[in-house]
Design brief:
The complex is a heterodimer of chains A (147) and B (293).
Chain A (H helix, E strand, L loop, with lengths): L8 E6 L5 H10 L11 E2 L8 E5 L2 E2 L3 H10 L5 E5 L1 H5 L9 E3 L9 E3 L6 H28 L1
Parallel strand pairs in A: 1-2, 1-3, 3-5, 5-7
Antiparallel strand pairs in A: 4-6
Helix pairs in contact in A: 1-4
Chain B lengths: L1 H38 L9 H11 L9 H20 L4 H20 L4 H32 L19 H14 L27 H24 L8 H22 L5 H25 L1
Classes of the chains: A alpha/beta (147), B mainly alpha (293).
The structure holds iron/sulfur cluster.
Iron/sulfur cluster binds next to helix 1 and helix 3 of chain A.
Amino acid sequence: MGYASKSPWVIHYDASSCNGCDIEVLAALCPGYDVERFGIINTGNPKHADIFLVTGSVNSRNIDVVKQIYDQMVEPKVVVACGICACTGGIFHDCYNVLGGVDKAIPVDVYAPGCAVRPEAIIDAVVQAIGILEEKSKALQAAKKGA
Amino acid sequence: MFITESFIFTLIGTVAFVVLAPIIGCFLAGLDRIISARMQGRVGPPLLQPYYDVRKLIAKDDVTVSGVDGVYMTCALVFTAFAGGIFFSGGNLLMSAFVITMAALFFIMAAYSSRSPYAELGAGRETVQVMAYEPMVLLMAVCFFMAAGSFNVGAIFNQPLPVICLTIPAFIGFLFILTIKLRKSPFDLSTSHHAHQELVRGTTTEMSGKTLAKVEVMHWCETVLFLGWTGMFFIWGTPLSIILGVVVALAAWFFEIWIDNNFARVKWQAMLKWAWIVALVCGGINIVILAFI
Ligand code: SF4
């Protein structure tokens, strides 16, 4: 196992929708679950983060914000869409201003469905994301060596 | 002849410090996180978590805002290494204090170079922190000189009694500013180890990857050096007293973690005011006492 999977730092952004998933994500990150056991830190800084947790659908207002945060993150990085709003737009999909899921703005690696997304589903998704992070990290190292 | 000899000693000390301080500092940082977690009713990360973090940061892609922050941080690391080398080879305490302040200045420059408002705010606060602790550090060195008869740390081994016997007020003052120097709450104004969400990420806001890894390693080395300063007060002629010094240093460090977890961050005005009051009272009283003894 590489070091990327031992110290995954998380950033969370609540794009829009009802905030239900937002609260579930924060609940999963709270001291009760003590995610620091796995080296996870909830940072508020995209430059320090490895995993981007997005909740809520993307609309014409926040699409730039989502892109901004993603662009500021340093490779290797993975994106987890938390909740059905973030996956596809959910119950807000036909709102006049909603563009759809997060993948309308940035590449998404893991989709965690649910309305609201269950903490178990979030943890499952993050575990998968850590696996992908590890692969991306290895690919980056190989590319660096090749270059 | 004398100069070359002390120069070689410093060089050996620096090499030893460069090898040992990151290892010891890394373990201390890991223990810090576990003890803090236990104080908060959590299990906490593995002991080697700080090492994993740094390894991960090194493996990240190279992204820099200004292009020079990495260089500034390298300078900060080099000066930290020299400060440690000077101190642990028994060299000049005052010199060690000045060189470690140089490291702090390079850290400030690294933060300023990004031109980010958050990083600039952090750099400004770090500057205030330097202003807050520096008078007490100097007074501590002066008291050490008056008690030991020399600025050379090696002089403690010629003493019949530990330096602390004559410098209790200065030591208390030093413990006060140690919290500022280690950037622990309530004085974690420039960059906080716990609050990742807030404005107080400060100085390191724009740093990522290897540059951030350098900040972490510098912090490990600083911790070892400052705990060395703490232990120095309790060591005298008998080599066995080194054990006492280490025990006291670890106790002081545990005390710092306890403070860190129990006190809320203060405003910079309060920090500056109290640091200077403590410096003038503790340092002043101690100098007066020593002048009359
Ligand atoms: S998926 Fe459901 S709970 Fe989550 S943000 Fe959308 S509407 Fe709210």
